[in-house]
Design brief:
Radius of gyration: 44 Å
Helix content: 40-55%
Number of helices: 10
Strand order of the largest sheet: 1-5-6
Structural class: mainly alpha
Distance between the termini: 48 Å
Number of domains: 3
Order of helices and strands: HHEHHHHEEHHEHHEE
Largest sheet: 3 strands, antiparallel
Strand content: 5-15%
Length: 307
């Protein structure tokens, strides 16, 4: 039953538009008077075809967002394929170099920290500085611009004489006794932070902590009185190489950031001004096909599309 009702409505939808001026197109041809012809001419001469042109436009906002997310995507969207390839290439190369240098820096950092853990300890630092406290050793009033921290019974203390004297009685004897013990077995342990790894290599104050230190490295006649021991020299070289790798990674991270920004603004501008050669205006035309010899003068529609 619903199908029949639907069929009836479809037939009515086709038949109703066919009735114009009380007649249908099925009446066929008829003789046209001069009066009829004049009326038809006046009526349909005013009918203008529905015609307009439009162009393919690109959204500057969308182009900006695409290239902000992935450099070159906005350029590809507006049709600048070679520029898109350039931005994508910069992005890929920058990420490859960034991860390469970052991983290299981390590997070298792990290596030099392990080297320091093996060849520098607080017991050596204290024992080797005895008798030369004007140049080396644990901080005291008026000496040393940098310090490290130690852990004792779960608490942390700055490695300064007045602090250790107050909170860790007999700390000096303990450092001597535990000098050659493994790190985990010591009761007073140096706290190995980033500053710790910087200080033990960079500053002469900590030079005596290296296990190949020799007092012959101290020459008070030199402007810089302390020479580097071979292991300290290697440590400094390895640390420098690691820092350079991290610096390179940071530089390429900056390149990546600017590549996103520059590509985004470039794509926005390109969306406003760039037109690829293959893009043309498209126009289409719709009009009525009429025949005034018929009682029903509208016989069809005309449609044209131009590229």
């Amino acid at each position: 039953m619903p199908k029949r009702i639907l069929t009836v409505f479809l037939l009515l939808g086709w038949l109703v538009p066919l009735r114009i001026f009380g007649q249908t197109i099925f009446n066929g041809d008829r003789e046209i008077t001069v009066r009829d012809q004049l009326l038809y001419n006046l009526k349909y001469a005013q009918t203008e075809p529905d015609t307009f042109e439009f162009e393919y436009h690109k959204s500057p906002g969308l182009a900006f967002l695409l290239s902000a997310a992935l450099p070159g995507a906005g350029e590809f969207y507006v049709g600048a394929k070679y520029r898109a390839a350039a931005f994508v290439s910069i992005e890929m190369i920058s990420w490859l170099v960034y991860f390469n240098r970052k991983n290299a820096g981390e590997n070298m950092e792990t290596s030099y920290e392990k080297f320091a853990d093996t060849h520098w300890n607080i017991g050596n630092w204290y024992v080797n500085s005895i008798g030369y406290t004007d140049y080396f050793g644990i901080n005291r009033e008026g000496f040393g611009s940098h310090s490290i921290w130690v852990e004792y019974n779960g608490l942390e203390y700055e490695a300064k004489e007045e602090t250790l004297n107050q909170y860790i009685p007999g700390w000096d004897l303990t450092l001597i006794a535990e000098r050659n013990l493994p790190y985990k077995d010591k009761t007073i342990r140096e706290i190995r932070t980033r500053d710790y790894y910087e200080n033990i290599g960079k500053y002469n104050q900590f030079a005596t902590g290296w296990d190949d230190f020799n007092i012959a490295l101290l020459d008070t006649n030199r402007r810089s009185p302390v020479k580097n021991s071979p292991r300290r020299e290697k440590y400094l070289d390895d640390r420098y190489a690691s820092n350079q790798a991290f610096k390179m990674a940071t530089n390429f991270a900056t390149v990546i950031m600017f590549n996103h920004l520059f590509s985004a603004f470039h794509a926005q501008i390109a969306a406003k001004h760039y037109r690829p050669p293959e893009e043309k205006a498209v126009s289409w035309h719709v009009g009525l096909v009429t025949d005034i010899r018929r009682r029903q003068p509208i016989t069809g529609l005309s449609f044209s599309l131009a590229f």
